[in-house]
Write a structure and sequence with these properties.
The chain has about 190 residues and is an alpha/beta fold. The chain has 6 helices and 8 strands. Helix 2 packs across helix 6.
Length: about 190
């Protein structure tokens, strides 16, 4: 084989890293455009989001509030409780805003008071989700998914919301096998 032929073949190979959603054989459905969007306060949700990104070949976007949340646990939980009960949606830093090109959006959040964190609610409220498939994932300290799937459906009534995956925060580091098994249910 010539060097130019090998280089051409390398350039034509998919860059997805061979994850679960890598391009298949000829005639298979096209690879969906996937985004992993998440908010993480302690780092657990970020770690889970990175695993999903690696396994799917997705793009990734971290939701960052303009005003950071307190580090001290009791102060944080009280602020989160007040914001959630008031329906408050904090201002977030935004990226390029081009969510239109994505078909599937994995939505990650810590479980705060049985639902998604307010910055995630802000993101979902500010971006058009009509016709998209939303797949929630959540880190928690014992509350599982809470009622987050219902709340996401309420925020995005014209999107399809699939069953999410809750992972105990202190177990995320060892949850790759569970995450991969869950991801396969969405293929």
């Amino acid at each position: 084989m010539t060097t130019s032929f090998c280089l051409t073949m390398l350039m034509l190979m998919p860059l997805s890293g061979g994850g679960l959603f890598a391009t298949g054989e000829a005639g298979s459905p096209p690879k969906p455009n996937i985004l992993v969007v998440y908010f993480s306060h302690s780092g657990n949700t970020r770690m889970m989001a990175e695993m999903i990104k690696e396994e799917t070949g997705a793009d990734i976007f971290e939701i960052v509030p303009v005003s950071a949340y307190p580090k001290e646990y009791r102060v944080l939980t009280e602020q989160a409780r007040k914001e959630i009960h008031a329906g408050f949606k904090p201002q977030i830093k935004t990226g390029d805003g081009s969510i239109e090109r994505y078909d599937v959006v994995y939505v990650g959040s810590p479980n705060w008071w049985s639902t998604i964190a307010p910055p995630v609610a802000t993101f979902l409220s500010e971006h058009p989700m009509e016709g998209k498939t939303l797949i929630p994932f959540m880190t928690h300290g014992g509350g599982g998914m809470g009622h987050s799937e219902r709340d996401i459906r309420a925020l995005c009534p014209r999107a399809t919301v699939l069953k999410g995956l809750p992972v105990q925060g202190d177990e995320v580091e060892h949850a790759r096998e569970e995450i991969v098994k869950w991801l396969k249910t969405h293929m």
